[in-house]
Queue: 3 jobs
Job 1
Amino acid sequence: MEETISLQDLFKTLKKRAGLIALLTILAITIAGVVSFLVLTPMYETSTQILVNQEATEASQLTNQNIQTDLQLINTYSVIIKSPAILDEVSSQLDLDMSVEQLNSKITVATAENSQVVNVTVQDEDPALAVDIANTTAKVFEGEIKELMNVDNVSILSPAVLKENPSPVAPNPMLNMAIAAVIGLMLGVGIAFLLEYLDTTIKDQQDIEDILGVPMLGVISPIKEEAKLEPITSRRKAGKTNGKKEESAAGYRA
């Protein structure tokens, strides 16, 4: 027989397991909060901007080919900034105890669409060190690009500045706790329906009808015991005593 589950049964299951669902949700939020505030290391972010100057050209010479060449040049600069030729010098000047790969993972280079500005963003556990890495990377690139590509069209537009009270960009405790709440809620609902599916005990007459496949004709109401029944031995003794009393009374009457 095909089993169907009504919307009422779903709400009934959720109401029945509401405590379990709430417990798992609160537990997930608590774990996410503890990990975000006490376990994960705060990361700070800063950035500097590098301007790539184009050579002065007449309006008639400004063609699509020139524009495409400029964009390709900026993309090339973005690759050079994160190359060992630049990062080795940055690590040497700042006396950093990290490899080029580790320093590379802290730096992100991005360019706005059809823009001559290159953004160099650095993330680090120490906000002051992040500022030093960003500014040193920009200065080293500005100096090295003259020898690498024999050009002098790069200048620092906006250096990174250390704020008085820097705020970490990661982790985001509120976002992590919100995500954990959703995951805990979904997990609680899933476990609730799983427990309900695995529960095969008979609870009411509807369960009996579903299992047997036949309608119930009647229900016997529970009988409440109002008084305790006397033990059989006590009743037998009481019967014998009453019989002797009746025999004695009959003898006196005779």
Job 2
Amino acid sequence: MTRHALYVELKARPGKENELAAFLAGAKPLVDAEPATRAWFGVRFDEQTFAIFDAFDDEAGRDAHLSGKVAAALMANAAELLAQAPQIRRADVLADKLPA
């Protein structure tokens, strides 16, 4: 069972909404290469508000993701794409349903 998660809220810089959406869609192959990332979602709530939600079996997997290629790419492009710093929230998973 997954035990740890991240919720990262992202606010797009005005005029950069499509670029942020493309960034999230393009990040999937990087996440696919992370064996400890059990679930990953890049989502859009409205024109400017996006988020990443991901889940891990252990703290080591979550830490590996936070120091991985997606996080590095996001931070390298943050000044251009984001209106404010990403809001990173660590969570404990209470229950889950994932494919086997």
Job 3
Amino acid sequence: MTSLSQQQQQICDQSKADFSGLKAIIVNATLKPPPEKSHTDTLLDVVAEIFESQGVEVDRLRLSRYRLAPGVYPDMTEHGWDHDDWPAISDRVLEADILVLGTPIWLGEKSSLAQAFIEKLYAHSGQTNEKGQYRFYGKVGGCVVTGNEDGIKHVGMGVLYSMSHVGYTIPPQADCGWIGEAGPGPSYGDELDEGGRAGFDNVFTQRNTTFMAFNLMHMARMLKDAGGIPPIGNVRTDWDDGSKPGWPNPEHRRDG
């Protein structure tokens, strides 16, 4: 069963762009434990189907399956915690050309798991790529938001800024979402008494989701074909190490 509207399917079918060789990881920061149904997953299904229709390899990651230890180092078992699943899943994120983080809105903010995931991205801020740039240079990021309260743009603003700060490139219209009517009510994808599913006929959501998915693919394609961002004026090794002995801020840490 397709998750795409007729118009979305038509756009995908008519696309002549070559996105082969691109890898995307779609991360769901729902608070619901698996295998409970996630409304955020339902909208992320649309993004995944657009990607896959264009030949992009898609990996799905549901954060509630894992235990991410608090902290901003790549492996927090080296810093006092007895367990951290991040080292076991981080390569899946690091290998992807495209990152899409999906989150519900709670109290006007992204979920606690979304924040924990962003902190894990930040844990790699002391690492560099083969050009000496920060680790996430040459990759692109986007954000999907669901819920029953206002705040899509507010949540997207924080998520996309965080991605940009650690090195991701953010293309135009890199966020989308659906919040429905304020207050208790159906969430995205719920079956409606009058028939149909909540949000599936919302042109605003369909349009922004399609724009986001294609803009992520276009930007990832351009960056990959160009060999990433040119290493001029943005190479860490051109500067001193910036270290402050005794202070563990990862942005001032030098890894090897």
